[in-house]
Amino acid sequence: MPIRWVLWLMSALLGPAAALAQPLTVSAAASLQDAMREIGKSFSAQHPGVELNFNFASSGVLLTQIAQGAPVDVYASADQETMNRAMSRRLIDPSTRAEFAGNELVLISPASRPASLGNLRDLLRSDVRRIAVGSVASVPAGRYAKAALDSQRLWATLTPKLVFAENVRQVLAYVGRAEVEAGFVYRSDASQATDKVRIDLVVPLAQPVLYPIARVASSTQPVLAGQFIAFVKSAPAQAVLARHGFTSP
Questions:
Q1: pTM to 2 decimals?
Q2: Domain shared by 41 and 116, yes or no
Q3: N or C, which end of the chain is more exposed by having fewer CB within 10 Å?
Q4: Residue 27: which domain range?
Q5: Based on the domain organization, do 197 and 112 belong to the same domain?
Q6: Considering the domain boundaries, does residue 83 fall inside one?
Q7: Are 38 and 246 in contact (CB under 8 A)?
Q8: Is 37 exposed, middle or buried (0-12, 13-18, 19+ CB in 10 A)?
Q9: 160, HSE (Cβ side, Cα atoms, 13 Å)
Q10: Distance spanning both ends of the chain, measured CA to CA
């Protein structure tokens, strides 16, 4: 069957709504997935012709995908450093960049274990055998954790205990299943699993955890991407982020 017939048949079967649908792809840091899905539902309700698609992974992995030509319209990272790399490589439109949320890095342990981690040096204890942390190369939470441990000269000593994860949600899963004795995630992640993990410590950081968002330079939906970014910064979306454990930027 000629391709033009196939296309005509698909159009006839799917109807005019399919032809008018506007796809919008948002790549967002893994820690944002619960909040972004809720925000996405509200945005879609206000834009009935939009086909909103999310892609969640570590900020570094998402940046690599965009650099390799993935069709993405909006990018939201969990740190400034990764977004700076995107801007230096001209992968985003810098005029659309904005901070929309904040967070805290926390040290968590399985809720099934007695609370015993009062400071970072407690990780040196022999009963703490495994510590989950995001891969420093691609996960901002991993870099934050390394900086905090480096500040107390603990990183090198603790390296044999470290279990590296692809993103913060994988760290959360490891701790929640008690496969490790401790892990570094964001407060927003820990708030999603209060029955499985416990926050032992808010980790002191030299710089605040801030989330920037921007339109991808190669977006085929620049107007719609701008509308989504504006919506994420709006009061209703900010309320959603707050419910999920995020702070104002």
A1: 0.85
A2: no
A3: N
A4: 3-102+208-243
A5: yes
A6: yes
A7: no
A8: middle
A9: 6
A10: 55
Residue 18 has pLDDT above 60, yes or no: no
Q: Please report, for the domain that includes residue 135, its CATH number.
A: 3.40.190.10
Condensed to tens digits (0 to 9), the pLDDT of residues 36-88 reads 999 999 999 999 999 999 999 999 999 999 999 999 999 999 999 999 999 99
249 in a structural domain: no
**Which residue, 161, 184, 160, is CA-closest to 174?**
184
**Per the structure, how many domains does the chain have?**
2
What is the DSSP annotation of 176-229? Answer: HTTSSSEEEEEHHHHTT-TTTEEEEEEPP-SS-EEEEEEEBTT-S-HHHHHHHH
Q: Bridge partners of 51? A: 23
Mean predicted lDDT score pLDDT of the chain: 92
Residues contacting residue 10 through CB under 8 Å, at least 6 positions apart: 18
Do residue 150 and residue 212 come from a single domain? Answer: no
Whether 98 and 110 share a structural domain: no
Pairs from 231-239 (Cβ < 8 Å, separation ≥ 24)? 231/39, 231/42, 231/43, 231/46, 232/39, 232/76, 232/100, 233/98, 233/100, 236/42, 237/39, 237/42, 237/43, 237/100, 238/100
- Do 212 and 95 fall within a single domain? yes
